[in-house]
Design goal:
Radius of gyration: 24 Å
CATH superfamily of the largest domain: ATPase, nucleotide binding domain
CATH topology of the largest domain: Nucleotidyltransferase, domain 5
Structural class: alpha+beta
Low-confidence stretches: none
CATH class of the largest domain: Alpha Beta
Largest sheet: 6 strands, mixed
């Protein structure tokens, strides 16, 4: 039987990374073709070429109109809400992410000298159904068989816990990257890693700290010269890269200076770490609030934790570490690389899934060293259990109150995979069809939840009002929903007409369009 090669991909907002399991059963980061361990998630369109990575990032100031970055923040949006046009072609968030994934896949194949077929791709724990579906679509458009979508903090905990399966402990994972923020509490016990609680903000990350510096310098420039340097795209990109460099410098030194030139004029601004921390206090407070919320959800005290795991480049900032130290007396885990842990955890999960397939089929395709590496001292395979990060509900009509409300089908923090079954009565007699409206969120008000889409169900004729309709929600390991409806004995598995991301008929067209682009 020919061997399949699986990789783990951390598809990040600002940087991405890839890992594999070597012939000794050890996880290793795969360097890209530029020999870097992480790849900037930046695309430069150059005719029929899409250049991904450092070259694209360094050209962002010179050619800002041909650059795409921070695309992860747009995942799950339909093309009407987010698109970028280059060379008369319009690209969705999935297609742009697929180009980054194609670069990672090609570089992995070059390094490993074999085709890469399968991948586990990571997403923020707080990503919703639409964002997760879009990530799977991006993987498929890149030519990958997506084995699973796994939460980034879970992946980091898996990387940390691989050689600690004999040490029972509760781990607090603080994951602050370039564009997203997640907090997850994991329990490592025996050969199991179980998610206890999760919370986050997928629009909070390093870029928000950068923007504070950008706006500060722009205000100083405006005060000195009466002009706004942010109105010019090239000037904005230049200032963005200078702000990023200043932020990094302030992690290791008490002060830095920024010089910005625009329209033949320039300004020099000095920024101290103390001033920077004051200006970004509201962002740290946001992080702190989410940390406290997740501890409440887990019903734990800070003293009950055993380790704090810091993931994501932003956790190198002194202000982040000071905030964590104030909250928790628990020691930081020092044996995990914040930039690489997520990709390493993803490739471990890929191997675990393939080992599970081996157990079911009886066909052994992986080396014995690998099998032993991923087993506990009892010989059982390491197991990872996630929980739902959002409540999944259905919109119903209240006859007494004469208004719509959300009925929760699968509650937040349910173990995954999850199945829920409920019976509802038809709202009127002789209804020819029922429209099932699916939402995600913690509110009972439909307007305060995220609408995932609808299912249109044909009903048998002449049903009296209140006839029972059975609704089944199945939430799989990727936290993507499937719906089944049964009315008077007729069961139908129905596809959700999602009002998010690329529609099924658009995916095939997107694949054809991307095939004409060369990616380097």
């Amino acid at each position: 039987m020919s061997q399949r090669k699986a990789i783990g991909i951390d598809l990040g907002t600002t940087f991405s990374a890839v890992a594999h399991i070597d012939s000794y059963g050890k996880p290793q980061i795969i360097p890209n073709s530029e020999n870097e361990r992480i790849t900037p998630s930046v695309i430069l369109f150059d005719g029929s070429n899409a250049i991904v990575g450092t070259l694209a990032k360094t050209n962002s100031v010179a050619e800002p109109e041909r650059i795409v970055d921070f695309v992860k923040r747009e995942m799950g949006k339909p093309k009407e809400q987010f698109q970028r046009a280059f060379e008369d072609k319009v690209y969705s968030a999935e297609e742009l992410s697929a180009l980054i994934l194609r670069k990672l896949k090609t570089d992995a194949e070059k390094f490993l000298r074999c085709p890469v077929t399968d991948a586990v791709i990571t997403v923020p724990a707080y990503f919703n159904d639409a964002e997760r579906t879009a990530t799977i679509t991006a993987g498929q458009l890149a030519g990958l068989n997506v084995l699973q979508i796994i939460n980034e903090p879970t992946a980091a905990a898996v990387a940390y816990g691989l050689d600690k399966l004999d040490q029972d402990q509760t781990v607090f994972v603080f994951d602050l990257g370039g564009g997203t923020f997640d907090v997850t509490i994991m329990r490592i016990e025996g050969h199991k890693i179980t998610m206890l609680a999760t919370n986050g903000d997928h629009r909070l990350g390093g870029k928000d700290w950068d923007d504070v510096i950008v706006n500060f310098v722009a205000e100083e420039f405006d005060r000195a010269h009466g002009e706004n340097p942010l109105l010019d795209l090239q000037s904005y990109q230049d200032l963005q890269s200078r702000a990023l460099a200043a932020k990094l410098q302030l992690s290791s030194r008490p002060r830095t200076a920024l010089v910005h030139s625009y329209n033949g004029k320039s300004v020099k601004v000095e920024l101290t770490r103390e001033d920077f921390e004051k200006r970004t206090r509201h962002l740290i407070e946001k992080c702190k609030t989410i940390c406290e919320m997740v501890m409440q959800e887990a019903k734990l005290k800070w003293s009950e934790l055993n380790k704090v795991l810091l993931v994501g480049g932003m956790t190198r900032m002194p202000m982040v570490r000071e905030m964590i130290a104030q909250l928790s007396p628990v020691p930081l885990a020092t044996d995990v690389n914040p930039d690489e842990a997520v990709a390493v955890g993803a490739t471990i999960q890929a191997i675990l899934l393939m080992l599970q397939e081996e157990e079911k089929s009886g066909a052994k395709t992986l080396p014995e060293d690998t099998r032993q590496q991923f087993s506990s001292r009892e010989g059982a395979l390491m197991q990872v259990t996630n929980i739902t990060s959002h409540t999944l509900g259905v919109v119903l009509w209240d006859d007494r109150e004469l208004e719509e409300y959300v009925f929760p089908m699968i509650n937040k923090m349910s173990a995954i995979p999850a199945t829920a079954k409920n019976y509802f009565g038809t709202a009127n007699a002789n209804m020819p069809r029922a429209v099932v409206r699916i939402v995600e969120g913690e509110s009972s008000l439909p307007g305060e939840c995220v609408s995932l889409g609808t299912c249109d169900v044909e009903l048998p004729p002449f049903l009296p009002k209140g006839s029972p309709v059975e609704l089944v929600y199945e939430y799989n390991e990727n936290q993507i929903l499937e719906v089944a409806v049964q009315a008077c004995g007729n069961e139908t598995k129905i596809s959700i007409e999602r009002n998010t991301g690329l529609a099924p008929h658009e995916v095939a067209r997107a694949k054809e369009g991307l095939a004409t682009l060369s990616v380097s």
